[in-house]
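Researcher: Let's do a round of design. I'm pasting the structure tokens now; please hold your answer until I've finished.
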């Protein structure tokens, strides 16, 4: 899983230096989508925030003030957005099909950080995946993989 995440994040940031967070930086779109999915059920737990911080820290090589700046930029972008389209449209232009699938897998990892998934989180990822062009079949497979990584195994394999 770590190799998959690392490959995804390296590809997203290859044309963007670590210290620059322009409004069109795809890393901000990724962070904003993560916030939108975390907030979908109306409850954002520390474990979910910690998971997002860990993913961004590991994959973008950010720490301290840079990591905090990226999280603020992602949260600000999410707060200003009225829907998922703004972010998915940008990411669809920057990411190939495999990378878009990897992003959906990352979103599931954040959902399962607290050990459960809500109907609202499921719906949020369904919409994001649809806008990214990730099939329902692939979205479900990615959800099952994330549940397994979270130690939930077959308990969450139903669609």
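Researcher: That's everything. Go ahead.
Model: Designed sequence:
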């Amino acid at each position: 899983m770590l190799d998959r995440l690392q490959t995804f994040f390296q590809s997203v940031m290859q044309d963007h230096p670590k210290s620059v967070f322009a409004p069109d930086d795809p890393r901000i779109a990724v962070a904003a989508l993560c916030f939108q999915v975390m907030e979908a059920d109306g409850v954002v737990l520390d474990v979910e925030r910690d998971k997002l911080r860990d993913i961004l820290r590991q994959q973008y090589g950010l720490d301290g003030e840079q990591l905090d700046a990226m999280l603020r930029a992602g949260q600000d972008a999410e707060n200003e957005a009225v829907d998922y389209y703004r972010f998915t449209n940008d990411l669809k232009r920057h990411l190939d099909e495999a990378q878009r699938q990897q992003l959906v897998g990352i979103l599931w990892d954040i959902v399962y950080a607290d050990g459960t998934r809500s109907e609202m989180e499921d719906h949020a990822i369904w919409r994001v995946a649809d806008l990214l062009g990730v099939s329902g079949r692939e979205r479900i497979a990615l959800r099952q993989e994330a549940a397994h990584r979270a130690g939930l195994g077959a308990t969450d394999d139903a669609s």
